[in-house]
Design brief:
Elements: E1 4-11, H1 17-26, E2 33-37, H2 46-49, E3 58-60, E4 66-69, H3 74-86, E5 94-98, H4 105-114, H5 116-119, E6 122-132, H6 136-142, H7 144-152, E7 155-159, H8 166-179, E8 185-188, E9 264-271, H9 277-291, E10 295-302, E11 309-316, E12 319-327, E13 336-343, H10 347-356
Parallel strand pairs: 1-5, 1-6, 2-4, 2-5, 6-7, 7-8
Antiparallel strand pairs: 3-4, 9-13, 10-11, 10-13, 11-12
Helix pairs in contact: 6-7, 9-10
Length: 359
């Protein structure tokens, strides 16, 4: 039987996850979606849409969607849903898991890799994060959970952008890109988002093409890269990248938005020489043992010794996987490109180890 695609929907409190979900659930898109909520918060969807009070915590809706709140663990609920689908008791095509406002999506994502029963029936498609533009600066400054949600995302929607000025939205996007260069970002107005921007994003599909914002990857100091006129040094005010400013809620409204020193950061590693598969595996294995809890997402397209095909690899926390991708094109530059997103990761240690794993 085909795997059931699953989407994890996460986001700041008040960012409009429920509005987005309601739209997804009530829109006539013809898809049958099961929504799993692992929260009992003020924003519960059921008191709005679902008035049915049943002992069975799975409620079938008029348009064929199903809602259930998790009273036990996620694994058991997913297994239960899949079993009912197999028996023909429930009809749904995909699952959306809504996490609580401040939940770390990591453990939810890991469920899909660690638990055999879940992994045999579901395909984790993507983590979608909603960021509330009005309260983002404060939440990102004060709550590591909010920063983690950004780091984990495959797709970011910025809600309530109409409530703040364009400059503030730009500053927010700039800040989010530093934390996560992989995730496309769009503004979403009252949950008005096309279904195709939420589903089948293939964020966890190892064969997916690796999307990293090309502008973000300009070498070095992309903020001041104005045609390399190194005659006068205009880099000096940026080199510390805000080390002197990490007080919670220390806000700068003076265009110096890139001085936030968030603990969730990303960096990119590239190399032209091929990796030695054994050395790379040893090094990555050792790194995830030590830094796994702080490694949110990491992905790469690798140029490996011994194969004519690209090797695609990715991971969440301690769990990683790799896969053979398409062959390198005859004129294509063979290069490894990896992006790491994590909490205060030791960039120097990672770069040194990766360099030593090259042939």
């Amino acid at each position: 039987m085909a795997l059931i695609p699953a989407t994890i929907l996460t986001g700041f409190l008040g960012s409009g996850k429920t509005t987005l979900l309601k739209r997804v659930l009530t829109e006539a898109h013809g898809q049958k979606i099961a929504v799993v909520e692992n929260e009992f918060g003020e924003e519960n969807i059921d008191n709005e849409i679902l008035v049915a009070d049943t002992t069975e915590n799975i409620i079938q809706m008029s348009n064929g969607c199903i809602c259930c709140t998790i009273r036990d663990d996620l694994r058991a609920t997913l297994a239960d849903l899949a079993q009912k689908k197999r028996k023909g008791e429930l009809d749904f095509e995909r699952v959306v898991i809504e996490t609580t406002g401040l939940a770390d999506p990591g453990p939810v994502a890991q469920t899909f890799f660690m638990d055999d029963e879940v992994a045999e029936q579901y395909l984790l498609d993507a983590i979608v994060t909603l960021v509330d533009a009005k309260h983002a600066a404060q939440q990102l400054n004060d709550r590591q959970e909010a920063r983690r949600q950004v780091g984990f995302a495959d797709q970011i929607f910025i809600s309530k952008a109409d409530l703040v000025g364009a400059e503030e939205v730009d500053a927010l996007i700039h800040r989010l890109k530093h934390m996560n260069p992989r995730a496309p970002m769009r503004t979403a107005h009252f949950g008005d988002v096309a279904i195709k921007e939420i589903f089948d994003l293939r964020g966890f599909n190892l064969n997916a093409k690796l999307e990293i914002d090309p502008d973000f990857l300009k070498p070095d100091d992309h903020d001041h890269d104005h045609g390399h006129d190194h005659g006068h040094d205009h880099h000096d005010h940026d080199h510390a990248h805000g080390e002197h400013c990490n007080h919670p809620s220390h806000q700068h409204g003076h265009g110096h938005h890139h001085h936030h020193d968030d603990d969730v950061k990303s960096f990119v590693f590239r190399a032209d020489r091929p990796f030695s598969p054994e050395k790379l595996e040893d090094f990555l294995g050792a790194i995830v043992q030590v830094y796994g809890p702080r490694m949110l997402r990491y992905k790469g397209v690798l140029h490996m010794d011994g194969t004519e095909r690209k090797v695609i690899f990715q991971g969440v926390h301690q769990l990683m996987g790799s896969d053979l991708g398409p062959e390198w094109g005859p004129d294509e530059k063979r290069q490894s490109k990896m992006v790491f997103i994590g909490i205060d990761l030791p960039r120097d240690i990672l770069e040194q180890g990766l360099n030593q794993a090259l042939l």
